[in-house]
Amino acid sequence: MCGRFALTASPEAIQAAFPGYEVPRQLAPRYNIAPTQPVAVISNTGSQAVDVFVWGLIPSWAQDPSIGNRMINARAESLAEKPAYRNAYRRRRCLVLTDGFYEWRKEPGQKAKTPMYIHLKSGGVFAFAGLWEVWNSPLGDPVYSCTVITTGPNTLMQPIHDRMPVILAPADYDRWLAPEERRPEQLADLLKPYPVEDMEAFAVSPLVNSPVNDSAQCIEPA
Fold first, then answer.
1. 217 phi, psi to nearest 5 deg
2. What is the mean pLDDT of residues 148-174?
3. Structural domain tally of the chain?
4. Contacts 24+ apart (CB under 8 A), 119-124
5. What is the mean pLDDT of the chain?
6. Which of 2, 94, 146, 218 is flagged as catalytic?
7. I want to staple 129 with a disulfide (CB 3.0 to 4.6 A). Which of 17, 68, 154, 166 is the partner?
8. Active site residue: 103, 133, 146, 218, which one?
9. CATH number for the domain that contains residue 169
10. Residue 1: what pLDDT?
11. Catalytic residue at 218?
């Protein structure tokens, strides 16, 4: 799964990575983004702007928004069948912006796991494949939320975890963000592990274990 990630880049750097979209100037660096917190996304609504959604998908039919706490990730293999995801997969896709994510590696003979920070060797901003929904509160207020799609690991991730987020190549952004409805078979080839040669991982401080900690120390090599 993907349970924590970061977006530490400046608005200017994000703008350079996504030149066709308006980036809010007030976006602050985030080093330890946790579920239920706001995340930067580009949705397929055609708005041409980076928006802020809640991390944890709340289906439109949900009675209680707390369901989003359990829907921070969606498995690529079952998107087309799961009631919570199948319509969004066809109609409501998004990019979740990031420049690195965390996973916890099991260590032989130890209870404690080692937090690992995984990012692109370029150090640049990239995007997870995501789905989004809008849920209306009892007062009629819309809540926009999203989930990160996961797939099997590449060889970098295999010793760390058995899942990894789907990272999309920039060349695939427009295809994923097409506003028209898409059949699952038209998109399935995008939901694959990212090329291992473009990624790296290193151990970081246990500070990241608590979402209270949100500082540059979280991404410093241990």
1. -60, -25
2. 97
3. 1
4. 119/199, 119/200, 119/201, 120/198, 120/199, 120/200, 121/198, 121/199, 121/200, 122/198, 123/99, 124/9, 124/13, 124/17, 124/99
5. 96
6. 2
7. 166
8. 103
9. 3.90.1680.10
10. 76
11. no
